[in-house]
Write a structure and sequence with these properties.
Elements: E1 16-21, E2 27-32, E3 35-40, E4 45-51, E5 57-62, E6 68-72, E7 76-83, E8 86-93, E9 101-104, E10 111-115, E11 120-124
Antiparallel strand pairs: 1-2, 2-3, 3-4, 5-6, 6-7, 7-8, 9-10, 10-11
Pfam families: WD40
Amino acid sequence: MLAYTLEKDFTLGGQVQCLSFLPGGRYLAIGIDGQVCVWDTTSWVLDLQYHRNGVLICSLTWDLHGQLFFGCSDGLLTIVTFGEKEYCSKGFCTSQQPIKFIAINPSGNFRLALGEDSEVTIWSFQGVHSLLYHGAL
């Protein structure tokens, strides 16, 4: 028989737009209105609050290296790399439309598909190793 146990219940001060677990489950990222919140699931401590004023966080996902990708209503894609008690973020504008969907090719060649209202765009990264944090999460 399948059994369910509630592990954590969040009361958040906004509307949840999207959420995603890091592969392996260590972190949970939630897009809430104009911010991304990342919790460490081993302790449920809030590790990161990243604010984007005046825009919605529409989509987010993790890659296999532990980088968090999130898309906003203004077409900006942001990539957050986590280090020891710090993080680095880089972003670029992909469209004037909201980024509603993000898919990362798991083959390791760093291709990214972004979905808007009426189009899908495919991006490949040059110099991606400068974004990667080479350490344990």
